[in-house]
Amino acid sequence: MGRPDATAVFITHGITARLFVKRWLHWSVDDFEQLHNPPNCGLLHLKRLDGADGTSVAYRLTRESRELIRAPKETGIGRALQLGKPLLEGRPA
C-alpha cells in the first residue's frame, strides 16, 4: 500500500492522537483508557515494519512513543488500512 518511503504527518490534539493510535493498532478500550495525552509538541512515531514477503506492511509505536503516552505494554501491530474500505470488513460478525 502506498510508497515504502512515504511519510505522513498529523498535527493534532492529544486525545485525537491517542484515538488514532488506538484504532490503527487495534488496541482495546481498556488499553486506550490507560494512555496519557502526549505533552505539548510531543511526537508519536509509528514505525513501518515490512513483511518478509515484501508485500505485507504493519506499524508499531516506537519505545519512546509508548513511554511518552505511558502505554501499559507493547500491544498490537497495526496493518495498513486500505482507504475507502469499511473498517469492519473481514472481521467476524
CA radius of gyration is 14 Å
The H/E string reads HHEEHE
pLDDT under 50 segments (min length 5)? 80-93
Report the sheet with the most strands, covering strand number, pairing sense and barrel closure.
3 strands, antiparallel
Query: Distance between termini?
Result: 26 Å
Number of strands: 3
Report on the architecture of this protein:
This protein has 93 residues and is an alpha+beta fold. It is 26% helix and 13% strand. Strands 1-2-3 form a 3-stranded antiparallel sheet. The longest helix has 12 residues, at 14-25. The chain is globular and about 35 Å long.
Structural features:
single chain; 93 residues; alpha+beta; globular
